[in-house]
Amino acid sequence: MIMNNSVTEFILFGLTQDAEKQKVIFGVFLILYLLTLLWNFLVVVTIKLSVSLGSPMYFFLSYLSFADACFSTTTAPRLIVDALTQKKTISYNECLTQVFAVHFFGGTEIFVLIVMAFDRYVAICKPLQYTTIMSQRVCSMLVILAWVGSCVHSTAQIFLVLQLPFCGPNVIDHYFCDVEPLMQLACMDTFVINWLVVSNSGTVSTMSFIALLISYVVILYSLRNHSAEGRRKALSTCTTHFIVVLLFFGPSIFIYTRPQTTFSVDKMVSVFYAIGTPLLNPLIYTLRNAEVKNAMRKLWCRKI
After folding, report:
1. What is the second-level CATH architecture of the domain 2-303?
2. Cα separation, 288 vs 290, whole angstroms
3. Which pLDDT band, with edges at 50, 70 and 90, does 146 fall under?
4. What is the pLDDT of residue 72?
């Protein structure tokens, strides 16, 4: 496809062109990115090394934290480096790679969140069968399915981008490559491509969000037969999951479920779900989860 295009590289506009603001962006997002890697690394290592965190819920949480770190890495480093450069260029192939990576790890987060909701449903609604249903083999298969599903989703996004011819201009009004900003540069009517993007990314985000909402409604309904202590613990866990779901799916649905149009807040919304959410997820899970906090305290205090 590159041979059919007169454009072999793109220029990323970034969050701003103001030199002073770019210095602030460099400092702020460098700190946020390093904190994201640190927090998610701590969660993954703590779960892997702590015997008390051997349940399926924490098994899935470790993969969510890993996906968070990778998802942030797809966009944050380039944003940080570009804040120090005048010409923010990215080659055609690098742009395609970034599109694939963003949707691959973003899709992984979606599918892992669905798996985590299924785990909570089985734990609360079918407690006597929980260990049988959520065996180690089943948990591993669910994670593999999440990776495969996200790979299929991101491959579809790349296929759509490959249909777009580029003949100039080549300035992407964004801080990373994504399908929507690229469609604005295409030398063709992108109505059908946009419809396919909405049908793919928009449908995956919306239907997953609806499925998660239904699962939480079913869980809450089933809690009426539990003891007060059981309800309290289940509500605490489900509330944590639901907060993460809202933080991720709200911006994602806003970006990917509408006709091809641009709003001034698009880039800030993208910053929130691509950089902010991976930072907040481990904090939400650790601050609201006594087991994770205790395991982390015991493990790292002993190591130090």
Report:
1. Up-down Bundle (1.20)
2. 7
3. very high
4. 95
